[in-house]
Amino acid sequence: MKHFINTILIVVLLTVAGIVFIDPTDLLPPLASSQGETVDWLFGIHLKIIAFLFSLVVVFMLYSVVVFRNKSGDLGDGKYIHGNTKLEIAWTVVPIIMVVIMGYIGVITLRDVTASDPDEMVVEVVSSQWAWRFDYPDHGLSSTELILPVDQPVRFEITSMDVIHDFWVPEFRVKQDAVPGAVNLLRITPTVIGEYKVRCAELCGVRHSQMLADVSVLDREGFDDWVVSEVARIASLDTPEARGEQLYQNQGCIGCHSLDGTIVVGPTWLNLYGRNEELDDGTIVIADEDYLRNSILYPGDQIVSGYQNLMPANYAEILSADDITDLIAYIKTIRE
Ligand SMILES: [Cu+2]
Q1: CATH for 121-235, among 3.40.1190.20, 1.20.1440.230, 2.60.40.420, 3.40.30.10?
Q2: What are the pLDDT digits (tens) for 233-283?
Q3: 23 pLDDT exceeds 80?
Q4: Residue 4: its pLDDT value, please?
Q5: How many whole angstroms from 111 Cα to the centroid of ligand 1?
Q6: SS3 for 158?
Q7: Cα–ligand 1 centroid distance for 109 (angstroms)
Q8: What distance in angstroms lies between residue 105's CA and the mean position of ligand 1's atoms?
Q9: Count of alpha carbons within 13 Å of 251, Cβ hemisphere only?
Q10: Separation of 79 CA from ligand 1 center, angstroms?
Q11: Where on the phi/psi map is residue 326: left (φ > 0), alpha (ψ -120 to 50), or beta?
Q12: Residue 77 — pLDDT band, cuts 50, 70, 90?
């Protein structure tokens, strides 16, 4: 009984120390969404329970190792014990109760975090290797930056154009897979004005770690101003070159093709038009309009020497003939 009281006392002390000294907020970036409050609350409870379970296991183990160690010269056998019904009932019933309680608070947290709101704003998230695009159907806008008004509930409708990605802003806590052919929902109400980053949380290929997008949470006025200026800017894209530049950003070409000569995943677009391009079978072609159009529609057809066939093959379904003409017009302008 003396040993039991000792161990329980140490367990209590170690648990309290764990709860006091491990601050869950140190382990996470600053919180910036209302859903995150619920998540952090659950995270805090988990840490407290874990502090207790860790102490329980480690204290009983180390206490026994130290206090009941073999005394020198003592060669006798230990006492023979067969079962202990009370103990067995306790260590079955207590964990069941704990798991049921954890399950219950998990379910109410999930219900909270996924709850819809009557005046939520829709943002469609389109991910691709290795870029993000955000469509605002209510405003007729598309952007490669995620701009959100503070305290506005947002329903994200998330999809992918190629492989599985995962939409995650650590400050908002919640995240959701982006799966090709499916639309997954995620609800976020940003609560703190500031700058954040979208990260991809699903290993999706060589540029996975650079698959970032800027997030700005603005006050309501700032958001409305952004909408007005974006609508005006897009309406003013009246040349094929300007529309082509917009497509370069919004259709994900930017994720693999640079404009400044650096090699990303595909060849740079700098001085591309008219250059002599060596293909992987050794032939040399001139990068004229027909070649560029063919490279966009059927990327697997003519592979540039030194590159792999990594370009998405479905632009023929996504882009119109005019889009491709605009893209080619834009490529022609990328010169030194
Ligand atoms: Cu990704």
Answers
A1: 2.60.40.420
A2: 888 888 899 889 989 988 889 888 999 998 888 999 999 999 999 998 889
A3: no
A4: 86
A5: 27
A6: strand
A7: 27
A8: 31
A9: 23
A10: 59
A11: alpha
A12: confident
Which residues are close to ligand 1, an ion, with C-beta < 5 A?
Answer: 165, 200, 204, 211
pLDDT at 28 over 90: no
Dihedrals phi, psi of 168, to nearest 5 degrees: -150, 125
pTM of the model: 0.76
Separation of 182 CA from ligand 1 center, angstroms?
Answer: 15
Distance separating alpha carbons of residues 253 and 297, to the nearest angstrom = 13
CB 241 within 8 A of CB 328: no
The answer to whether the CB of 154 falls within 8 A of the CB of 148 is: yes
Tell me the CA–centroid distance for residue 136 and ligand 1, in Å: 21
Q: How far is the CA of 267 from the centre of ligand 1 (A)?
A: 21
CB 174 within 8 A of CB 243: no
Name the superfamily (CATH) of residues 240-333.
Cytochrome c-like domain (1.10.760.10)
Name every residue whose Cβ is closer than 8 Å to that of residue 116 and which is 6 or more positions away in sequence. 155, 187
CA of 126 to the centre of ligand 1 (A): 11
